[in-house]
Amino acid sequence: MPTNMTTILIIAGGALLLILGVVAGVRKARNAWRNSLLGQIMQGVKNEVEEGKVGPEDFKFKQELATPKSVSDLSTALIPQINRDFPDLNISQMQSAAQSVLVKSLDLLTQMTWGENGDTIDRIQKQLPESGIGITRSYSEDLWHRIEAARSEGKTLIYRDVTVHKSGINEYKKTSSTVEITFQYSLQCLQYQERNGKFISGNRATPTQCRYNVKVVNILDAERFASEDIKGVGFTCPHCGAAVKHLGTDVCEFCGTAIKTVDMRIWLVDKLFEI
Ligand SMILES: [Zn+2]
Fold first, then answer.
1. Spacing, Cα 65 to ligand 1 middle (Å)
2. Ligand 1 center to 250 CA (angstroms)
3. How many Å lie between the centroid of ligand 1 and the Cα of residue 247?
4. Mean pLDDT (the chain, rounded)
């Protein structure tokens, strides 16, 4: 009997040690999980849910949300054409200035629809040209109309943590009155809408992948044209009417007349649209 008792005690002792061991193991695993990157992310998400910053409606972990969108980049074919027409133009500088207009525009959509503020279209016209390229009146009006529409519905349009993935030259187009360069950008941001500080749509937890086109136009600088008395503003020679093939040149190749038309033109961002 004592032997059996001892056996039972040994078994009981062994079981107790086993249980303690399992408990320690679970604790260790839990700590390891908490310290892991994924664990920290999940904990962060849990905290945000508890604080009401995100809700269950945000957790759409779809592959399409995680993969950056592609851009249709035709730079290789278009840069030589643009260089031929505008030898002095720094295209890559324009591409990054147009990107800055895009990112600042999204930021202004957020800031100017955030709560009560006295912001007007003047803020758009003052701040966007700080990107290194000007904007047309119609660009600032388009952006302003989107802000006014959101305000009238009491909506805040939020674009947070904007990261640009890729960019390229998508189109180069010459018409009788303008020349247009369209840049394309793929970016991600936390994109959602709020009303009275409450979430109404979008996704606050997973970045939304988007693609935007920014169209830059080469148009007559109306202010300068009015202040300087120079005739001839099209892409034809004002003296002989010959087509000006190289927009960067300043002398007509047929009659030698000095052409000031190019000098009177400036590059301005004219349109922004999501595609
Ligand atoms: Zn001529």
1. 56
2. 11
3. 13
4. 83
Alpha carbon of 237 to ligand 1 centroid (Å): 5
Which pLDDT does position 5 carry in this prediction? 58
- Please tell me the least confidently modeled range out of 29-33, 58-62, 115-119: 58-62
Quote the radius of gyration of the chain (alpha carbons, Å): 30
Residues 6+ apart with CB under 8 A from 146: 109, 157
Q: What is the 226 CA–ligand 1 centroid distance (Å)?
A: 23
* Topology (CATH) of 50-274: Nuclear Transport Factor 2; Chain: A, (3.10.450)
Question: For 62-74, what is the mean pLDDT?
Answer: 82
CA dist., res. 178 & res. 109, Å (int):
28
User: Lowest-pLDDT range, 44-58, 154-168, 189-203?
Assistant: 44-58
For residue 93, how far is its CA from the centre of ligand 1 (angstroms)? 32
